[in-house]
Automatic annotation (TrEMBL):
Coiled coil: none
Domain MgtC/SapB/SrpB/YhiD N-terminal per the UniProt entry, residue ranges: 19-139
InterPro entries from the UniProt entry: MgtC-like_C (IPR048640), MgtC/SapB/SrpB/YhiD_fam (IPR003416), MgtC_SapB_SrpB_YhiD_N (IPR049177)
Protein name: Protein MgtC
Compartments in which it is found: Cell inner membrane; Cell membrane
Physiological role: Virulence factor required for growth in low Mg(2+) medium and for intramacrophage survival. May be involved in regulating membrane potential by activating Na(+)/K(+)-ATPase.
Keywords from the UniProt entry: Cell inner membrane, Cell membrane, Membrane, Transmembrane, Transmembrane helix
Domain MgtC-like C-terminal: 158-232
Family the UniProt entry places it in: Belongs to the MgtC/SapB family.
Length: 238
């Protein structure tokens, strides 16, 4: 067997140290994700870190540093596909971006461990954990702050409830009045609510809005024949 002639005890211990460190650091990252009940938890982060370490370590033994660099490039792109699987779109909201980024960090930790840079893998683990824990209060504080429509660029929707018979004509009027006020319309959708009621959803091109100015425009739209109710709302697009 070729294994008996090629097996090197010290090389095996080197690989074992790389895999063990990747397992340990991946478990630290994954435990925090598991505690917060995220999609990619303890086992996923450990497997990503250990898998990345195994591929890089294998390349190091077969082709040296040049080979490991090529493998790391493939690991980075491969984790991108894995991360895409945990990203979900719910209406206008996107969930899972932080989980996908954490998987990317676990892969980086594994690559460091596989390249025998165990101290660097430990330091990177600390930074990943800090990003997911120490920054959380700051994120919550920013999210609780009121949205300033003048300085924030977001997705603005104008919703008009109108008589079904007047919907076609109102659609053109809504677009005309919004664009005249320098609020370009990206999309207009008609949603039937009942036999005689229709909702017209005008989505503006991502831009900053002046609340008072947009209130004035919607008030003009509300005075049109057939209009029952008009409202608008802004949400961030990130």
């Amino acid at each position: 067997m070729r294994f008996l002639t090629t097996f090197q005890l010290f090389d095996f211990f080197d690989t074992l140290a790389s895999l063990a460190s990747a397992f340990f650091f991946g478990a630290l990252i994954g435990a925090e994700r598991q505690y917060r009940l995220r999609t990619a938890g303890l086992r996923t982060n450990v497997l990503v870190a250990v898998g990345a370490a195994a591929f890089v370590d294998l390349a190091m033994h077969l082709a040296g540093a040049d080979g490991s660099v090529r493998v790391i490039a493939y690991v980075v792109s491969g984790i991108g596909f894995l991360g895409a699987g945990v990203i979900m779109k719910d209406g206008m909201n996107v969930r899972g971006l932080n989980t996908a980024a954490t998987l990317w960090g676990s892969a980086a930790v594994g690559c460091c461990a596989g390249a025998d840079m165990i101290a660097q893998a430990g330091a990177l683990t600390v930074f990943v954990l800090a990003g997911n824990t120490l920054l959380r209060p700051l994120v919550n504080a920013i999210n609780r702050s009121p949205l300033n429509e003048r300085t924030s660029e977001g997705i603005c929707e104008v919703v008009v409830t109108a008589d079904a018979g007047a919907a076609a004509a109102l659609r053109d009027v809504i677009v005309e009045k919004l664009e005249a006020a320098s609020y370009p319309v990206g999309d207009v959708e008609l949603v039937t609510r009942s036999e005689d009621t229709v909702e017209i959803l005008a989505t503006l091109v991502s831009t900053s809005v002046d609340a008072e100015d947009l209130d004035r425009v919607t008030a003009e739209i509300a005075r049109q024949p057939g209009v029952r109710h008009v409202t608008w709302d802004v949400s961030t697009g990130d």
